[in-house]
Design brief:
The protein is an alpha/beta fold. The chain has five helices and five strands, in the order βααβαβαββα. Helix 3 links the parallel strand 2 and strand 3. Helix 2 packs parallel to helix 5. The chain starts with a strand and ends with a helix.
């Protein structure tokens, strides 16, 4: 299985409760709850990850380190990333990847960008919430529905 994903960072409302250290590390790591949900989903269906996030422009090594440092279970494989064609819509980049690497049986997309013709394989997350419990439930339901 291939799994494309995004939205593990969510905006933080600034408050007086944040220490100086919290502010320095604000986006150093992904949101813990979102990462926990990603781990649950990947382990449940033995998903492998293909990165299609906008932060893939930093390169595969950076993305892997970021995910692992943020709590991605080390047993979950990160097997690739889509091209970064800045003028092309992301779903075209995913199509391109699916055509080029066609050894999958099914896939699921998590993104906060509408996936047009791939929407029947996509969970549209909200940037403000990320991959929360509600999105995890929807992802499980969608993947089970697509595998009947």
């Amino acid at each position: 299985f291939f799994f494309f994903f995004l939205v593990i960072n969510i905006p933080v409302k600034f408050s007086d409760d944040l220490s100086d250290e919290d502010l320095i590390n604000l986006y150093k790591f992904a949101n813990k709850k979102c990462m926990d949900n990603l781990n649950k989903l990947c382990k449940m269906f033995d998903f492998k990850i293909v990165i299609s996030s906008s932060w893939r422009i930093s390169g595969m090594d950076y993305c892997k380190k970021y995910l692992l440092d943020s709590g991605l279970d080390e047993s979950i494989e990160i097997i690739g990333m889509t091209k970064n064609e800045e003028i092309v819509k992301r779903y075209y980049e995913i199509y391109d990847y699916l055509i080029k690497f066609n050894n999958f049986t099914n896939f699921l997309i998590l993104d906060d960008i509408y996936m047009e013709s791939l929407s029947s394989y996509a969970i549209l997350t909200q940037f403000e919430k990320g991959f929360d419990e509600e999105m995890l439930k929807k992802a499980i339901e969608l993947f089970n529905k697509n595998n009947k």
